[in-house]
Amino acid sequence: MADASTFPLKSIFEEAGNQVIFMGRFFRNLFRWNFEWEEFIRQCYMIGYRSLPLVAITGFIIGFVITLQSEPTMKAFGAESFIPKMVAISLIREICPVVIALICAGKISSGIGAELGSMQVSEQIDAMEVSGSNPVQYLVVTRILACIIMVPLLTLIADAVGFAGSYAGLNLSQRVSPILFFNKAFNSVEFGDLLPAFFKTIFFGFAIGFIGCYKGYNSNRGTESVGIAANSAVVNASLWIIVIDGIAVQLTNALGY
User: Fold this and answer.
1) In sequence order, which residues have a C-beta less than 8 Å from that of residue 84 and are 6 or more positions away?
2) What residue spans define the domains of the chain?
3) Which of 108, 122, 176, 208 is 20 to 30 A from residue 256's alpha carbon, by CA?
């Protein structure tokens, strides 16, 4: 008789195999003709523009809080002038990419999972296949590509708003010229700080879109599966973001960035 402890391991490998197969379907449909440009643009609007207020507020609060928390310590060592540099490097290299990706995982990945899950339950995806349409190209490819493009752009916006939040936090206790603050912040940022973070957000966007589409597209029948797909998409996308970030940090250190 098989050991019961082997079943969770078996399910993990089955899930990984199914994700690899689904990823293969995505790449096969990625380079086909008749790309759904209208749906792609609509998804960019839904994913990017509608997430902008949440991302902007989050970026502002991140910069504001980091400045307030670090200012007493920096003052104790007489290093107040290094606050713009510290905040800029922290936001660009690590904090904004990861936090914004987790925010997008909660908003975007769950939304995609719930949307495709409801379409699966109502048999709309089956109807597309019967009518000769390509649901993977129309539903999956457009959403994943929109996430790949929009998540890095949202992260850059959060970086910029985070600088404004840091400036506002610093001016609560002292008067600092905006020209001086932003000169110090931008002069401390090098190309080697921006490039790894930007490429990292591309993989974050792929993970967010892919997991959301996979969970929603492969949801079971029944209304409960919609909520399960949305919840599972958030959990798995967040886990993949943390794993990708850990790998990216190791690669960045190995390459000397």
Assistant:
1) 166, 170, 181, 182, 184, 185, 188
2) 35-255
3) 208
Per-residue pLDDT of 162-199, as tens digits, reads 999 999 988 887 788 888 888 888 888 888 788 889 99
Of 70, 53, 108, 79, nearest to 184 by C-alpha is 79
The count of residues in the chain is 257
d(CA 28, CA 14) in angstroms, rounded, equals 21
* The pair of three-digit structure tokens given for residue 46, joined into one six-digit string: 């839904």
What token pair was written down for 19? Answer: 């994700």
In angstroms, the Cα distances linking 127 to 40, 122, 131, 144, 213 are 21, 9, 6, 22, 18
pTM, full prediction:
0.89
**What number of CA atoms fall less than 13 Å from residue 137's CA on the CB side?**
16
Q: Which of 146, 103, 167 is nearest to 95 (CA)?
A: 103
Which own/partner pairs from 66-69 qualify as long-range (CB within 8 Å, at least 24 positions apart)?
66/90, 66/91, 66/95, 66/166, 66/169, 67/165, 67/166, 67/169, 67/170, 68/169, 68/172
Picking from 204, 210, 205, the residue whose alpha carbon sits closest to that of residue 18 is 210
